[in-house]
Amino acid sequence: MKQAAVGFRVHSGWSALVVVSLKKGAPTVLSRQHVHLVETFSYKFRQPYHTAEKMPLEKAHEFISGALSEAQRLGDRALRSLLGDLGRQGYQIKRCGLLLASGRALPGLEKIVQSHALIHTADGELFREALRHSCTRCDLEILCTKEKELLDQGALTLGVPRDELPQRLTELGRAQGSPWTQDEKFAALAAWLALVVSHQNS
Description:
The structure is a single chain. Helices cover 51% and strands 23% of the residues. The chain is of the alpha/beta class. Strand 1 and strand 2 form a beta hairpin.
């Protein structure tokens, strides 16, 4: 089977997902999706730590735990469906690229809800953690890259001049049509990196 990788750029409550394969060393996009990681796409559930901030601590713990479980379940479902669809087309996905924010470790819930900056960070991290869990359950190797380092890392690993890389990513999505925003471009680059790094290590 031909090899492919999936890349994620995560937001609160959803993620951009792009699958990339290599043909003669050049990337090609096989699939792109917006995956919802909450059943009810409303502020209450998309921003779980903002919601938990207004709750008693015990109830806040329950709410956050439920949000994480739901996101993991939806991530599992989306990923398994994707693996099945691409498998039937002759592609095997064994790797994923996951973009991180700062990568900074978070304190416990009690301290998080006392800081608006930490609340914002924690909302994103919850959904990244859910996708990390889903990728692990699907036996995917995970390459994590801090988003602020993505273009530098891409240029270094792929051998593409950094100032040319944005245009390469734009061209990569030309056949896909709209939307092909920074979400899709960065998710595609994360997947591309995961593929190339795996080949270099094999």
